[in-house]
Amino acid sequence: MNIDPTMSVPIYKQIADYIRQTVAAGVYRPGEMIPSLRALALQLKVNPNTVQRAYEQLEREGLVRSRKGLGMFVTQQGAKTAQTKSEAAVCSAFARGIRAALAAGIQPPRVLTAFEKAWESVETEVRAQA
Amino acid sequence: MNIDPTMSVPIYKQIADYIRQTVAAGVYRPGEMIPSLRALALQLKVNPNTVQRAYEQLEREGLVRSRKGLGMFVTQQGAKTAQTKSEAAVCSAFARGIRAALAAGIQPPRVLTAFEKAWESVETEVRAQA
Amino acid sequence: MNIDPTMSVPIYKQIADYIRQTVAAGVYRPGEMIPSLRALALQLKVNPNTVQRAYEQLEREGLVRSRKGLGMFVTQQGAKTAQTKSEAAVCSAFARGIRAALAAGIQPPRVLTAFEKAWESVETEVRAQA
Amino acid sequence: MNIDPTMSVPIYKQIADYIRQTVAAGVYRPGEMIPSLRALALQLKVNPNTVQRAYEQLEREGLVRSRKGLGMFVTQQGAKTAQTKSEAAVCSAFARGIRAALAAGIQPPRVLTAFEKAWESVETEVRAQA
DNA sequence: GTGGTCTAGACCACA
DNA sequence: GTGGTCTAGACCACG
To answer: How far is A15 from chain C (nearest CA, A)?
Structure first.
């Protein structure tokens, strides 16, 4: 997992996004526990309050549920919720891009080209990490 | 033009993006003046300082050049700069979406579906405005 | 540090120049935090917004990086950037003087004399402060 | 004569500086008339008010004196005044550079190097114009 | 506590 | 009229 404290995206959001994507991808299944607050804070070398804030948001989304003294557990509908949320985020990012493109007078074919270009650049990133 | 003060994107950035897209679309051509600080502030019902901040950023990007007592003028390379910047913003939005999709374990075909869905939703918006 | 609000150079630029020189001189090293907005504003008796404006410029130059909730930190290449920028500013001031001198028909030997005179006057200032 | 309306130096100051340097260089001698307000405005394609402002400043400096209906004439002590003023401006530019250099921890030998570099760059400019 | 944004209103410099 | 700077004071987001 990669947390970059220098990015403009706040740390707590990076954490929440990461957990949500992980649940959506099926790494943590309904009923399973996600990493404990303190363990994750230690691993990422961030303030426990920051992790807490991320976990609060996930709980508000209904993705996980805290059981006192035990930890945070993925809810039964958690996987589905995570998938829906994640897909909505993806759609929203695409919509923002398309809206900006049309406003700038970029023609539809060129918008598709931009999409392909973005795709390739992401694939290159992924390969570089591996 | 639509400014939404409730969005997380700061107002001054929304204004800068709007002007940049406008220049990219050829509404204001090199050598022409963009709306005066106060005029735009009145129209958008925001503080002149906020518009100024947007204009400062555009000047830093080399899109416009300010002349005291006269106004802000689109530079010769302004149109090209605006197009490049705008396209980069579009690509970046797409890349963000794709990255999030892959992280959430969404399969490539479904990513394309999401893109098409986003496209349609934007088209619906545009029609609604017209 | 001396801020002179009566000078034609805007205060926020004086502050930015001061911090840049400080970083160039090695007072703040890469990874270290520069004074907080409010602290510096109090010390200089200026509005925090004015200091912020200076800090924004330094961040744009890549000298520092802001982390919300923590402060502004000198980047790894910050020291080098600061030195380069500072030296460029010095050269530019000299060039402006030389250009003015030649335009006024001052002969090269007298330009050198003027430079020596300026040097002595600065040394006198420095001694006076100490 | 070169007036650049896009520069940060205000136009009226560019004009005043130019005339002052010209007088210092002996192009216009005491008792001679400098170009008429309207003629210069036409030639430089600037607002006559702007030229007027430059001329007002020169008159305040005691460099020229207006004779109603005739024009602006270089005063008897005008040449000397212009030379003094010009030299002071040169010294001041040098002093600013030296002050910035010392503040940035640049060692005296390197300051001299910067001065030589500036000199060469100005000479290159001059040759390019010719 | 940190930085970031916004408003209201002032004053200045410039053409 | 134009843009540029500054203050005072508010509210928010982040750690």
So the answer is: 16
| Inter-chain touch D6–B67, beta carbons under 8 Å | yes
Chain E bases near protein CB atoms (7 A cut-off): 1-9, 13-15
Cβ neighbors of B122 (< 8 A, separation 6 or more) are: A95, A98, A99, A102
List the structure tokens of D57.
Answer: 């400043």
> Mean per-residue pLDDT for B96-122?
96
* Alpha-carbon span B127 to A69, nearest angstrom: 53
CB atoms within 10 A of CB B81: 20
* Residue pLDDT, tens place only, B72-97: 999 999 999 999 999 999 999 999 99
Q: What one-character-per-residue DSSP string does chain A give? A: ----TTSSS-HHHHHHHHHHHHHHTTSS-TTPBPPPHHHHHHHHT--HHHHHHHHHHHHHTTSEEEETTTEEEE-TTHHHHHHHHHHHHHHHHHHHHHHHHHHTT--HHHHHHHHHHHHHHHHHHHHHH-
Find out whether B24 and B63 touch, Cβ atoms under 8 Å: no
Contact residues on chain D for B65, CB-CB shorter than 8 A: 6
* Helix-helix angle A11-24:A48-60, to 10 degrees: 50
Cα–Cα distance, A24 to B105 (Å, whole number):
7
Cβ within 7 Å of strand F: which of B 104-123?
none
Query: Looking at the complex, does the CB of residue C45 fall below 8 Å from at least one CB of chain A?
Result: no
The low-confidence residues of chain C, meaning pLDDT below 70, are: none
Nearest C-alpha of chain C: how many angstroms from A5?
A: 7
- Contact (Cβ atoms closer than 8 angstroms) between residue B29 and residue B74: yes
- In which residue ranges of chain A is pLDDT below 50? none
- 8 Å CB contact between D109 and C112: no
Report the predicted TM-score, pTM, of the whole model to 2 decimal places: 0.94
B125 contact partners, CB below 8 Å, separation of at least 6: A99
Which residues in chain B have Cβ-Cβ distances shorter than 8 Å to A98? Answer: 90, 118-119, 122
Backbone angles phi, psi at C47, to 5 degrees: -75, 140
Residue of A nearest to B126 (CA): A99
Assigned fold of A11-78: Arc Repressor Mutant, subunit A (1.10.10)
Boundaries of every domain in chain D: 1-130
- B67 vs D contacts (CB less than 8 Å): 5-6
Provide the pLDDT for residue B129.
85
What fold characterizes domain B1-130? Arc Repressor Mutant, subunit A (1.10.10)
Which residues are paired to C65 by β-bridges? C73
Cβ separation of A99 and B122 shorter than 8 Å?
Answer: yes
